[in-house]
Amino acid sequence: ESAYRRLVWEDPDFEQYFIRATPIAEISRMEFGSRPARRAASAPSLGALRAIPWTFAWAQSRTNLPAWYGVGAALSGYVERNGAAGRGELETAYRDWAFFSSTIDNVELGLAIADPVVSARYAALAGEDEPMRRISQTLRLERTRTEEEVLRLTGSAHLLDRSPRLQRSVELRTPYVDVLSELQVRGLSRIRGSSLAADDRAVTERLLQLTVSGIAAGLQHTG
Fold it and tell me: Which positions ≥6 away from 207 have C-beta within 8 Å?
């Protein structure tokens, strides 16, 4: 919780990173649900953002941050404080405590449907200024740490090894989603980077809408 809070609520540059590195601004203008993405049009902040657009935007960027961020820090921190006994306690909890094992399994799935390579393409949209690069690096490091901790806890060599059908399903869908993600990144770069003629803007906005729908269907994740 503390790692998540420090990044999301206490880092003054995080909200700008979120806006740049995900399609949240574009999603907010699309009519996908019965309610607006934000609770108040006059308060364009993280606090005003509804939960579903928050998770949906991170899934679209193939980062899936809400599903795993901070878990690696929590697990490794527990072991650092308690040593080998702490590692054993975590393994026992995973084996015997249904709530804990279900939580870790959900984190594992969240990591599996994210993609660090594709996510880096979205991170590049945030720009090269120091705060954006710092946050991008923070996400990469925590993603690696969380995956390592989850695999160690579950005793697996790869994500979803214990769920081969689900693992295969993700593997089969991923190449198609990757293409849609690349189209989305290009569309975001185009619509944000320059003034477009009305016809070109309409075409690009339609492209983005189609990629949002396609990625959600391919990932089976709508927030």
Answer: 183, 187
Per-residue confidence band for 43, with pLDDT thresholds at 50, 70 and 90: very low
Domain extent at residue 33: 2-162
> Within 13 Å of residue 183, how many CA atoms lie on the same side as its CB?
19
In percent, the amount of the chain with pLDDT more than 70 equals 91
- Whether 26 is in a domain gets the answer yes
pLDDT in tens, 52-78: 889 999 999 999 999 999 999 999 999
Q: Is residue 112 part of a domain?
A: yes
Count of domains forming the chain:
1
171 found inside a domain = no
For residue 97, give the 3-state DSSP assignment. coil
Place of tokens 């809400």: 66
Helices (H) and strands (E) in the chain, counts: 11, 0
The reply to whether the predicted model has a pTM over 0.85 is yes
Token readout for 38 is: 């934000």
Separation between Cα atoms, residue 156 and residue 221, nearest integer Å: 24
Q: Is 205 inside a domain boundary?
A: no
